[in-house]
């Protein structure tokens, strides 16, 4: 397009020179040539300005494209981080649910253990009462009868030591050969009736 305009200008210039050579239009031709020269200068300035604007536009486009690429990369990186965080959150929620289930199971087990401990303590208190009662009874029997029983002898035998007023006397009875009444009477006969 520029070349066409330049060719047209040259043709106009040639025509003007012909007119000049033909006669009275010298001043007119001179003015036309001055105008034409000014138009060429403006055209060159416009071309230089346009070229500079195109260069600036290309540089700006390149910067914007680089910023856009950097923004897209940052967006992708951020999306990956968000996905990783979502995955971590999902795992944390699963862990929390598992811990809650474990916690409730442990609570139930703890409650069961507490109940068992309460039962054992009650049993121990009952056993302590029985043991205390049995100890009291054994001490009472000893005070009355003054007999130390041999608890390790075999079942049909009754063994022990009677600590009488004068001397200690061993006891050895076979309950399989003697009647209960005889054993009872014999043992009561050892008890001192003088209180």
UniProtKB/TrEMBL annotation:
GO terms for biological process: attachment of spindle microtubules to kinetochore; cell division. GO terms for cellular component: Ndc80 complex; nucleolus; nucleoplasm. It is found in: Nucleus; Chromosome, Centromere, Kinetochore. InterPro entries: Ndc80_Spc24. Acts as a component of the essential kinetochore-associated NDC80 complex, which is required for chromosome segregation and spindle checkpoint activity. Required for kinetochore integrity and the organization of stable microtubule binding sites in the outer plate of the kinetochore. The NDC80 complex synergistically enhances the affinity of the SKA1 complex for microtubules and may allow the NDC80 complex to track depolymerizing microtubules. Keywords: Cell cycle, Cell division, Centromere, Chromosome, Coiled coil, Kinetochore, Mitosis, Nucleus. GO terms for molecular function: microtubule binding. Residues 68-130 form a coiled coil. Component of the NDC80 complex. It comes from the Eukaryota. The keyword Cell cycle applies. Its main location: nucleus. This is Kinetochore protein Spc24. Gene3D superfamilies: Ncd80 complex, Spc24 subunit. It holds the Pfam family Spc24. Belongs to the SPC24 family. It comes from Gopherus evgoodei (Goodes thornscrub tortoise).
